[in-house]
Amino acid sequence: MEPHDYPKIQPGEGTLLEEMDEERLLRQLLKDIEAVPYIKGVSNHMGSRLTEDPEKMKIILSELKRRGLFFLDSRTTPQTVGLQTAKSLGLKAMERTLFLDHPSNEGDVKQKLERLIEISLSTGKAIGIGHPYPSTITSLKEMIPKMKEKGIDIVPLSSVME
User: Fold this and answer.
1) Are residues 90 and 10 in the same domain?
2) 45 with 122, same domain?
3) Which end of the chain offers a freer environment for a tag, N or C, measured as fewer CB atoms within 10 Å?
4) Other CB atoms closer than 10 Å to residue 21's CB: what's the count?
5) What's the chain's Rg over C-alpha atoms?
6) Could you tell me if 106 and 91 lie in one domain?
7) Into how many domains does the chain fold?
8) In this structure, what is the dihedral angle of CA atoms 3, 76, 102, 94, given to the nearest 10 degrees?
9) Which neighbouring-strand residues pair with 71?
10) Residues whose CB is less than 8 angstroms from the CB of residue 107 and which lie 6 or more positions away in sequence, other chains included
């Protein structure tokens, strides 16, 4: 989805843009969905500008509901209307708890994973999102055994979606 600094920041092929009318938006969304085999849900990558637009989000999220998909709001902006709009439509949706790798050095990632453990233990679940950066992968490999020792299971997002 379109970020605030577009076109300076290029989110890549298949981006849903603020300038798109409903027909173009749905056509691009369909292409994006069809590009992912066995898809169960959608998350916004970047998308800070588009997730602030209630009308565009209603178009997108209505189509996700029609297709039986869920929505994860990655909260790329504090002004997101993603979760609120999804819930108003009766779409299964949640938002990420923590962004794990911004910044992406190992120390910070491990600290965020420790926080994710705390949240998970106190609330029963937590959703962390990140990138396949070497520091993130290394940190996860180190921290997953610690999570398991504390009784935390890492599960597919679809299994905790509300």
Assistant:
1) yes
2) no
3) C
4) 10
5) 17
6) no
7) 2
8) -140
9) 42, 93
10) none
User: In the listed set 80, 95, 110, which residue is the last one of a domain according to the structure?
Assistant: 95
What CATH number corresponds to the domain at position 80? 3.20.20.370
Q: What is the three-class DSSP state of 73?
A: strand
Read off the pLDDT of residues 49-107 as tens digits, 9 standing for 90 and up: 999 999 999 999 999 999 999 999 999 999 999 999 999 999 999 999 999 998 889 99
Which residue range forms the structural domain that includes residue 148? Answer: 97-162
CA distance 145 to 92: 30
Judge if 7 and 19 occupy the same domain. Answer: yes
Looking at the fold, whether 85 and 103 belong to one and the same domain comes out as no
**Spatial separation of the C-alpha atoms in residues 85 and 78, rounded to whole Å:** 14
Angle (deg, nearest 10), helices 134-149 and 106-123: 30
Q: Is the dihedral of CA 142, 143, 149, 151 positive or negative?
A: negative
Q: How far is CA 138 from CA 62, 110, 141, in A?
A: 38, 9, 5
Do 11 and 69 sit in the same domain of this protein?
A: yes
φ, ψ (nearest 5 deg) of residue 66: -60, -35
Contact 49, 70 (CB under 8 A): no
